[in-house]
Amino acid sequence: TFALALVFSAGMAFGQSNDTNVNQSGDDNNATVEQVGSSNDAALTQSNYGGSGHEADLYQEGTDNVANVLSQGGTGTNMVDMDQVGDNNDATIAQLWGQNEAVVSQTGTENTVNVQHRGSYQSSAEVTQDGTGNFAKILDIGQTRSNPNTGNEAAITQEGDNNEGVVDQAGDDHSATITQGNTAYESDGNYGKIRQDGSGNTASFSLKRGDENDVTITQTGDQNYSEYSVESGEGNDLEITVDGTANRTRFSID
Predict the structure, then answer these.
(1) Kind and range of the H or E run holding 143
(2) What's the pLDDT tens digit per position in 78-121?
(3) How far apart are the first and last CA of the chain?
(4) To the nearest 5 percent, what fractions of the chain are helix, strand and coil?
(5) Tens of pLDDT along 32-58?
(6) 146 φψ region: left (φ > 0), alpha (ψ -120 to 50), beta (else)
(7) Beta bridge partners of 218
(8) How many CA atoms lie within 13 A of 27 on its CB side?
């Protein structure tokens, strides 16, 4: 049995235009990257085809930073934890195969997050953004529908104005949640979209306070459940399309 344990730690990098490239192959890899400044670039690739997984921790503070993570493994658990503080930052996480988990937190304006799960099972993605004009997308494509161990989850939480959250899932037993705004401040002009294809899916959208928000929920398959909750606001637009059997839709507008 081939097993390679490699631990890489890149210390705090200060300044502008710092580039970090990490490539790891084998089992039980751990990578930590920290960058402070502007226009920094971090690229991390972790791969193995055995039963163990990887762990990656990335922290960037500044503006115009870019982080790209490719994590692919066999049956093990791959974990990515990414934090970006500043404006115009870009985070991309692609996790292939295995049991994956991605957690991304961004604070600032005009930030972008893209999380992709392909061919994975029992995976989860969680994105939290605090600011204005942010974009978050989670693409979750599990294994074949004959696999009973799919069960992927996606969650996007956004606070601020003019943010966009998109969840796109295909497969079985998915759960998707988009939450925009909070009870203390209004959150206006946001866009939320959830699209699911499969059976046993659950979709939930929650808007705390805000005006002129646009929400689209589309479900295709069996035993789907969608919930739309708005505590207060005006001029919000909702569109829900359900195609399947034993679906249930619930509205809550205070």
Answers:
(1) none
(2) 899 999 999 999 999 998 877 889 999 999 999 999 999 887 77
(3) 59
(4) 0, 65, 35
(5) 999 998 898 999 998 876 666 788 999
(6) alpha
(7) 195, 241
(8) 11
Alpha-carbon torsion (54, 39, 66, 111), positive or negative? positive
- The model scores a pTM over 0.70: yes
**Chain-centre distance of CA 69, in angstroms?**
13
Rounded Cα–Cα distance for residues 49 and 89 (Å): 31
Residue 186 per-residue DSSP state: -
Q: Which residues are CB-contacts of 227 (< 8 A; sequence separation ≥ 6)?
A: 203, 204, 205, 249, 250, 252
Q: Going by C-beta distance under 8 Å and a sequence separation of 6 or more, which residues neighbour residue 144?
A: none
Spatial CB neighbours of 2, under 8 Å, sequence gap ≥ 6: 26, 50
- Alpha-carbon distance of 9 to 231, in angstroms, equals 45
Tell me the sheet residues that pair with 50: none
Whether the CB-CB separation of 153 and 182 falls below 8 Å is answered with: no
Residue 56: how many CB atoms within 10 A of its CB? 27
- Tracing tokens 């359900």 back to the chain, one arrives at 242
In the chain, which residue ranges form alpha helices assigned H by DSSP? none
Round to whole Å and give the CA distance between 129 and 12. Answer: 23
Amino acid at 142: G
- As given in the structure block, the two tokens for residue 238 are 């909702």
